[in-house]
Design a protein that fits this description.
Blueprint: H1 2-21, H2 23-30, H3 35-47, H4 53-71, H5 78-89, H6 91-103, H7 109-114, H8 118-125, H9 130-139, H10 142-151, H11 157-166, H12 172-186, H13 200-208, H14 212-225, H15 227-236, H16 248-255, H17 260-268, H18 272-280, H19 284-296, H20 302-321
Helix pairs in contact: 1-2, 1-3, 1-4, 5-6, 8-10, 9-10, 9-11, 10-13, 11-13, 11-14, 13-15, 14-15, 17-20
Length: 336
Amino acid sequence: MAEAVNQNRGVERAAILLMALGEDEAAEVLKHMTPKEVQKVGAAMASLQNISTDQVAEALGEFSTTVDKQTALGVGSEDYIRRVLVTALGDDKAGGLMDRILTGTPSKGLEALKWMDSRAVAEVIRLEHPQIISIVLSYLESDHAAEVLCLLPERMRPDIVMRIASLDGIHPHALKELDDILEKQFSGNKNVKSSTVGGTKAASNILNFMDASKSGAIMDNIKEADGDLGQKIEDLMFVFHDLVNVDDRGIQALLREVSSDSLVIALKGSDEAIRDKIFKNMSKRAAEMLREDLEARGPVKLSDVEVAQKEILSIARRMAEAGELNLGGSGGDDYV
């Protein structure tokens, strides 16, 4: 009982603090909260009335005290940071980031491209042979590679994606040579640990992060040039409508991670099948509220719908990789 009271008091203090911060700053803080946390704090903010200056001062004072206590613990050791990064990012990504954070050593070669702005990467590789470009994009994270691909000439995109899909790994020596070439542009030297890049899955992941119109145009060109390869890539792509193939437990888990606003915008551009799937896995009251929100929401830009759908798909893919749901159907893995 006392724990619940303390929790409620903590939520109220957080609400007061956010109200005191102002709209822009409060919005930045809320971006880092889970949907459930936003709902709790948002409800508390909405219920605040006649808050005195003493209450604001108390909330700010307790926040300051808490921060002082936490920052005085001296946990910023190298081992602590390394454990946190490995847990969050995995060994490979954490290794490169540790160099940047702890030693100030800049990343070089292929690794450097991972930390560069998409436009800068596009400028570096624009004049390279398409095969080189395909290897570089395979080495990047899928969303980063998608941004870079969009910045390359449209006529090049289908060829590059086909080359990515056709890659079946690359010999470490060849990858090291490419790394050396890129290093010369950054005046550095770094060994490459992995030679597993490319493949149809890498190509499908990149296309999944692109606007539907651009990925659709690329797929049309690929299918025209190589129907079998195009089908293999398409089979691995997971689009918003494919959520109908996710089991009910998976949908329910997904809905707990998705903000209501993103869901409304995403469903504005969906068909009845996916809407029915969502409604079916909500409580009667929640489904009614969602229907009302959909009806009340005016026209939404297609680009906003695509952004919301990709945000939900990104959460679904993350949960699938963690084994929390089975995407099923197109792009999904079988479970035994």
